[in-house]
Amino acid sequence: MTVLTRRIGGVQLEIIVADITTLSVDAIVNAANTSLHGGGGVDGAIHRAAGPELVAECRMLHGCKTGDAKITRGYRLKAAHVIHTVGPVWNGGTLGEDDLLASCYRRAMELCGKHNLSSVAFPAISTGIYRFPADRAAEIAVRTTIEGLSAAPSVGRVIFCCFSEPSAQLHAEALGRHGSPC
Length: 182
Ligand code: AR6
Fold this sequence. Notes:
Blueprint: E1 2-8, E2 11-17, E3 27-31, H1 41-50, H2 52-59, E4 69-73, E5 81-85, H3 97-114, E6 119-122, H4 134-148, E7 157-162, H5 165-176, E8 180-181
Helix pairs in contact: 3-4, 4-5
This protein binds ligand AR6.
GO molecular function: O-acetyl-ADP-ribose deacetylase activity
Organism: Bradyrhizobium guangdongense
Protein name: O-acetyl-ADP-ribose deacetylase
């Protein structure tokens, strides 16, 4: 379900409510952990849908630091690639969580640019098991992704793939503060 679409320059930004594993895009972003060996939440769903080849490739990456991102193929997913990023665990906001979350979106956009990808879908990183406040995370997600468009000139479509309507509303409010109606 599409909640909002906005255009910034030549780039279409969409807020949808969906299961990210079903999307046909160049890359879906995974909210992983530092081991990159899979887990619960969206990470578990992506690994289940991609098949065992995904964890085999992930094992060769030797983990990922919080705030960083690494790219693999998508295997049995419709998405050609998975960008694995590791969001911060929320600890009250005094341990650099905002900057680390922003870094996830920035690094993911940099990888899109480096690999010449044209479409990318993000889940609401850190807002599940890692307990980052959803409204604060949505603002960081939208703002940082828009800032990151300059590092990814190949990208023409960005999807914020929310898993609930309240999450989508928070992203829609954030996107409403940026960009113009499509
Ligand atoms: N499609 C889209 N969004 C989803 C899906 C899905 N299929 N499933 C969950 N979400 P979480 P985190 C939403 O917990 O907070 C894992 O164990 C979910 O509703 O998946 O970054 C990792 O291995 C929430 O809004 O990720 C790490 O250990 C958002 O995705 C840890 O969880 C993120 O929730 C990472 O925690």
